[in-house]
Design a protein that fits this description.
Layout lengths: L1 E5 L2 E7 L17 E4 L6 E6 L5 E5 L7 E6 L3 E7 L7 H13 L4 E6 L7 H11 L2 E4 L8 H8 L3 E5 L6 H8 L25 E4 L5 E4 L13 H7 L1 H6 L17 H7 L5 H20 L1
Parallel strand pairs: 2-4, 7-8, 7-10, 8-9, 10-12
Antiparallel strand pairs: 1-2, 3-4, 5-6, 11-12
This protein binds guanosine-5'-triphosphate, magnesium ion and zinc ion.
């Protein structure tokens, strides 16, 4: 069963029989479809329209393969928390790589700024390299109007670790959504996977938003090398000065990226992330 939005109304729809074995694969959240409304019965999906984008990520667990998450997404809001769960730059970089690998623009959202004395310090590096950054607090109602504004008229997807407040942010923007939220675990301060499926919602101010289940970790296997490079524009910019065209900025001589890091132009943690994520992406393509 699918939920279908047409002119702001929600309908149940099922797949037309012949579509079940069609080559397009499954219908994704965000797909635009042709439907047939039948007398008294639910609608059937007859055809999927061409997609402007497909957000893909690696199959969770040990399985190989790529999972298609959503279609026609204009922007991904990667949400992290300043605390509870603890801020983890590398994890945020992973979510950014997944969006960039699908060629979808990213905004970084730092939520729960009420729980941190100097939240800017956590995300300044993302601003510096060129990402749009929003600081928010559902608790103190900070940045909620800015977030709302940035979703108007677009199809946005909210991603990020579990428990960072993705669903809470959407409820703050539009209380009528009444999305389920839950406190982080007392013991681990981690989220509890409260949202269980990606679901699209209509925004009252125009536009659509997809809330997704948070992950505790996300692999970048199955991501092309270019996806990683795109998520680290500062590394890409500096790399034009490297001695070797194919420099991986690991241990090569005369590496301009390492030099930029040594004199503080490139953030240490970002470079470490870059190396880890590039290694992961490359290892995967060898294994596949
Ligand atoms: N202090 C504080 N707590 C917040 C804030 N935003 C959300 N929370 C709390 O964080 C907890 C987790 O929020 P959720 O909205 O369920 O998190 P989520 O990212 O949707 O989690 P998943 O659905 O598991 O991915 C809830 O107890 C919220 O009340 C905030 O800005 N400040
Ligand atoms: Mg949620
Ligand atoms: Zn280099």
């Amino acid at each position: 069963m699918y939920r279908l939005i047409a002119d702001g109304e929600i309908y149940d729809a099922s797949l037309r029989g012949r579509m079940k074995k069609s080559s397009v694969g499954r219908v994704l959240v965000g797909d635009r479809v042709m439907v047939m409304f039948h007398d008294g019965a639910a609608a059937t999906i007859e055809e999927i329209q061409p997609r402007s984008s497909v957000l893909r990520r690696r199959q969770p667990g040990k399985t190989r393969g790529v999972r298609e998450v959503a279609a026609n997404i204009d922007q991904v809001m990667v949400v992290g928390a300043a605390a509870d769960p603890e801020w983890n730059q590398q994890l945020i970089n992973r979510f950014i790589v997944v969006a960039e690998a699908s060629d979808i623009p990213v905004t970084v959202v730092l939520n729960k700024v009420d729980l941190h004395a100097d939240p800017d310090k956590l995300v300044d590096v993302f601003r510096k390299v060129g990402y749009a950054v929003l600081l928010t607090s559902v608790e103190n109602r900070i940045g909620i109007d800015e977030l709302k504004e940035s979703l108007v008229g677009k199809v946005s997807l909210i991603s990020g670790p579990t428990g960072v407040g993705k669903s809470s942010l959407l409820n703050a923007i539009q209380p009528g959504l009444k999305l389920r939220t839950a406190p982080v675990s007392e013991r681990s301060r981690m989220g509890k996977h409260t949202t269980v499926a990606a679901e699209m919602h209509v925004l009252a101010g125009g536009g659509f938003v997809v809330d997704t289940p948070g992950l505790r970790d996300i692999g970048v296997w199955g991501v092309e090398r270019e996806g990683v490079v795109r998520a680290f524009p500062e590394v890409a910019r500096a790399s034009v000065g490297c001695r070797f065209d194919n420099c991986r900025h690991m241990e090569e001589p005369d590496c301009a990226v390492v030099m930029a890091c040594e004199n503080g132009e490139i953030d240490d943690e970002r470079l470490q992330s870059y190396r880890t994520l590039l290694g992961e992406a490359e290892a995967a393509s060898r294994h596949w």
